[in-house]
Amino acid sequence: MAAELSGRERVAADAAARGLDVEFVERMRARSLDEAASLLGITPADIVKTLVVKRSDGTFLFALVPGDRQLSWPKLRALVGVNKLQLPSPEAALAATGYERGTITPLGSTGDWPVYADASMLGRRVSLGAGEHGCSLFVHADELLAALSAVVADISEPANP
User: Quick check: pTM over 0.85?
Assistant: First the structure.
């Protein structure tokens, strides 16, 4: 993908190349997941968080988890077959994806990292980062995960209240 494209343009180009039907929705910049859900008129469960996860060998992966849940590190480590995973610094996540935190999506990422998605997001239309602040992406989860060749499994647990 051309570096001169904006984040949203990279997302749109990658989605089109994959034959994926996506909808962009402009919104005010949200300070929290609950605020973003309110602005979009959906529940936090319908917002999928895209986490960039660093492996001990310096490579990365994406973990997709619904907003009302949190990543289960033991489940993800077992699925990936490693003993150690960690969240990188904001700067390392930007370098690995080309996106700032809060805008990260596997679509159009500058790194072609494998995608692991929580099975609880299947069967519904979800929102996720659109590559830039003030914009969200809507897509059918099943189509997104198929287009990304995602590994779909139970990788989450209920979020702490």
Answer: yes
